[in-house]
Write a structure and sequence with these properties.
The chain has two domains: 1-79, no CATH class; 82-146. 36% of the residues lie in helices and 5% in strands. The chain has three helices and two strands; from the N terminus they run ββααα. The protein has helices at 82-119, 126-129, 136-146; strands at residues 3-6, 22-25. Residues 2-71 form the Legume lectin domain.
Length: 147
């Protein structure tokens, strides 16, 4: 019976790893043809992640050849690092919080001035010499006290 071993190692690791991620006793010779493409798929819970498969080795029968790390291509450089996305979201968040703060501040200021304007009464010139007229607030409280 043939055995399929799946191993993974970081790029700095020179030798084939001893630890296998998955091991199955399976004969793949009826499934695998002479010329085939192999597709790898990864999944994580991160928002954005990238994986690179720089090399892989496979043998139908016998021992797998060791990988020569000196012949591997270099890892592609990412043109948009992840921190730039977070930086953009941070700028947008700060701008929205500042805008919300300004709207709340101006609204409170406007409502306070409007309330003062409605309750404020000017003292006219004739009131300086004679008795003052009653403020509107006092006049509105009188009927409530009488009933």
């Amino acid at each position: 019976m043939k055995q399929l071993n799946v191993t993974i190692a970081p790029l700095s690791h020179q030798l084939k790893p001893n630890f296998t991620l998955n091991s199955r006793s399976i004969d793949l010779s009826p499934v695998l043809l002479e010329h085939m493409y192999v597709v790898f798929s990864f999944g994580t819970q991160k928002l954005v992640s990238k994986f690179y498969i720089l090399a892989w080795s496979f043998a139908m029968d016998g021992k797998v050849l060791e990988l020569d790390l000196s012949h591997l291509p270099s890892i592609p450089q990412d043109c948009t690092p992840l921190w730039k996305f977070f930086k953009l979201y941070l700028y947008i968040f700060v701008a929205l919080v500042a805008l919300l703060f300004m709207i709340v501040t101006f609204s409170i200021s406007y409502l306070t001035k409007r309330k003062r304007k409605l309750t404020y009464e000017k003292i006219e010139g004739w009131e300086m010499d004679y008795p003052h007229k009653l403020p509107y607030r006092v006049l509105t409280k009188i009927p409530r006290r009488l009933s």
